[in-house]
């Protein structure tokens, strides 16, 4: 987030940490964490709110691209080992995906309330390429760290599944679970249910799968939200902006 936020103004690692954690905290009570956008925008002047929301969409968008790309690869690989999706549904999915891509290319110049996809592409091009490249690398590293958390935990619980098969299952879990609308507060239940189903093909005990899902939820949501809640009580974005403006003026 520090990398993208400097399009509006440079911020420190500490400041970006506050904004991310408070954003996650805002997202806990909204479907699919969309409250995160408001949480981050809270730290900026109203005139920059739209740009902050856009930058956060860019930040999350590249994460979604990696999740979908690796998730599709993982799902197809697991399906080739243990078919749980009929081939006709896979063909239907790719047919719809191609149709959506073609539709986007055809309607990119159509304007709705003054906005179009062409406007979106133009806004993306206005962000320096150096920032885009760094965002892509950091997003990939974040995704790899996330799925390897599962690998480490399952290894600690003595689950013996080939490395690439385990990563494929995890990638598939994130794709299938994330495709459904949900609240972050019960995210572990949804991902845990999908995980129990997929790992059952490889003879993994359901209790281990549930425990790992709960630990991942604790590490990646409960702890960050707990810290974000403390930050929300301690830090006042309006006061911070006033102080920053005063220091700039001096």
Sequence-ordered SSE layout with sheet pairings:
Layout: H1 2-5, H2 13-27, H3 35-41, H4 49-81, H5 87-107, H6 117-126, H7 129-156, H8 163-178, H9 187-199, H10 206-234, H11 237-249
Q: Short summary of the structure?
A:
With 250 residues, the chain is mainly alpha-helical.
Give an overview of the whole structure:
The structure is a single chain. With 250 residues, the chain is mainly α. 76% of the residues lie in helices and 0% in strands. The chain has eleven helices and no strands. The protein has helices at 2-5, 13-27, 35-41, 49-81, 87-107, 117-126, 129-156, 163-178, 187-199, 206-234, 237-249. The longest helix has 33 residues, at 49-81. The radius of gyration is 20 Å and the shape is globular. The protein starts with a helix and ends with a helix. The model is unreliable at 243-250 (pLDDT under 50).
SSE pattern: HHHHHHHHHHH
Helix content: over 70%
Cα(first) to Cα(last) distance is: 27 Å
Report the radius of gyration as a whole number of Å.
20 Å
Mean pLDDT: 80
Query: Which ranges are low-confidence, i.e. pLDDT below 50, for 5 or more consecutive residues?
Result: 243-250
Give the strand content.
Answer: under 5%
Helical segment tally?
11
Task: List the defining traits of the structure above.
mainly alpha, 11 helices, about 75% helix
